[in-house]
Write a structure and sequence with these properties.
- There is one protein chain.
- The protein is an alpha/beta fold and 418 residues long.
- It folds into 2 domains: 235 residues, 3-Layer(aba) Sandwich (Rossmann fold); 161 residues, Glycogen Phosphorylase B (Rossmann fold).
- Helices cover 49% and strands 13% of the residues.
- It has 16 helices and 13 strands.
- A 7-stranded parallel β-sheet has the order 3-2-1-4-5-6-7, sandwiched between helices. A 6-stranded parallel β-sheet has the order 10-9-8-11-12-13, with helices on both faces.
- β4, α3 and β5 form a beta-alpha-beta unit.
- α7 packs across α12.
- The protein is globular and about 65 Å long.
């Protein structure tokens, strides 16, 4: 039986973040092909993590900067190693190459961290994004990790183009792999326009674009309430900090709800999803959730990036406080426009994110690279060059940290013995 080892940045929390259920869909991709899977992480296990053992997936705790990983991975000799975000490739890539050189090395970028960071910096400085913003130290690290891997799963068409045109990443190293949704094209029975009320925002508060969106909603909401004085905004999300819960204002209908036990239920009860994201990258899980639950959305151009079909979004795209407020009120009150947006959402799911349509091509590209690994790698000279240089420095740094840790432990033992 073929073996996949996933090196996770965190333990998957599919009910807390889009990254969590994206990871679960990737695990299911391999599980459906009959593969054995081991998910390993050095992270703490959060309260909302999924129990992977119930899905037949083995769980393994690993340690950073520790040669015990080398012995463990060498004993497994996996056919494929999947790095969850580029930081894991930096930490473990050289160890994987040394211990199991014939394993296909795949990076799941989640979204382009350098793009999100560049946009965030431009947002902080209150100016438009410039191309030079992309050429950061973070970009150097991230693109180097992409080039060192055999394949990278890329979540959006926009990022596929950016990687090839701006960073000159070969198309043969990229696999277009957006969110994979179980969607047959037939809409489920959902609450209708008249059965819904109020607005909703939902998002993990540990993700900075979500927190900034909530702060922006504080400015936008009074403009909406002026037109819709009885409307409420229900804000849900995992891990809300005290500064978020302090924004609760029942008198103004600005309600901080915190964790949603049933995200689908609260999304279906709302008439409109508000997602004024000032920056970000990749695809927005909250907007996919909204489409699945028949809830039209109002978002920004960045929010809708990679999520339109024939140039049309599942709702309205706007910018500026008044523009977003007006769009929200129009979508909330115009039943015909609301229904058109809902149907557009169903069409986007069917055409752009259908698991049945996308998985065969993704799997074919993954397996083709694995079957012809030597010839595939022979075309990736820049990756070979970067592995020689970066892995050498990463190796020495990791070994130095491990030696330093062992020395500290030895000194502690001697101190206790005295």
């Amino acid at each position: 039986m073929s073996l996949l080892v996933v090196l996770g940045y965190v333990w998957p929390e599919p009910t807390s973040s889009a990254a969590g259920w994206r990871m679960l869909s990737l695990l299911e991709l391999y599980r459906a092909q009959g593969w054995q899977i081991v998910f390993a992480s050095a992270a703490e296990r959060g309260p909302h993590r999924v129990d992977l053992t119930k899905l037949g997936i083995s769980e393994q705790t690993i340690h950073l900067n520790c040669s015990s990983f080398d012995q463990w991975i060498a004993g497994l000799q996996p056919d494929v190693v999947l790095f969850d975000r580029f930081m894991l490739e930096e930490q473990f890539g050289w160890r994987v190459e040394a211990a199991c050189p014939q394993a296909l090395r795949v990076l799941d970028s989640e979204d382009l961290h350098c793009l999100r960071a560049a946009r965030q910096q431009a947002f902080k400085e209150k100016r438009p994004l410039q191309t030079t913003d992309l050429y950061s130290e973070l970009a150097i690290r991230e693109i180097a990790a992409i080039l060192r891997c055999d394949l990278t799963l890329t979540i959006s068409e926009f990022e596929m183009t950016l990687l090839q045109q701006t960073f000159q990443v070969p198309a043969s190293q990229l696999v277009y792999c957006p969110f994979l949704q179980e969607y047959s094209g037939e809409a489920a029975v959902l609450p209708d326009f008249a059965d819904r009320q109020h607005f909703i925002f939902i998002g993990n508060f540990r993700h900075e674009p979500n927190w900034q969106a909530v702060l922006w909603l504080q400015q936008i909401w009074p403009l909406i309430r002026t037109q819709l004085p009885k409307a409420e905004l229900h804000i849900y999300g995992a891990y809300p900090p005290p500064k978020a819960t302090a924004l609760h204002n029942a008198k103004q209908g600005f309600l901080m709800k915190g964790w949603a036990d049933d995200a689908a239920a609260v999304m279906q009860s709302a008439r409109v999803c508000l997602a004024p994201l000032p920056f970000g990258a990749g695809l927005k899980g909250k907007l996919i959730d909204a489409m699945q639950n028949g809830t039209p959305s109002v978002t920004t151009a960045i929010g809708s990036e990679g999520m339109c079909l024939d140039g049309q979004f599942a709702g309205l795209v706007a910018d500026g406080n008044q523009g977003i407020a007006d769009a929200a009120c129009v979508l909330y009150q115009d039943e015909q426009q609301w229904r058109c947006a809902q149907q557009q959402g169903f069409a986007i799911l069917a055409q752009k994110f259908s698991k049945n349509k996308l998985e065969p091509a993704i799997w074919q590209q993954l397996e083709a690279a694995r079957a012809q690994l030597s010839s595939h790698r022979s075309q990736l000279f820049f990756g070979l060059m970067l592995r020689q240089q970066q892995y050498r420095s990463s190796k020495f740094m990791g070994q130095w940290i491990e030696a330093k840790t062992r020395l500290a432990a030895l000194e502690q033992q001697l101190s206790e013995a005295e």
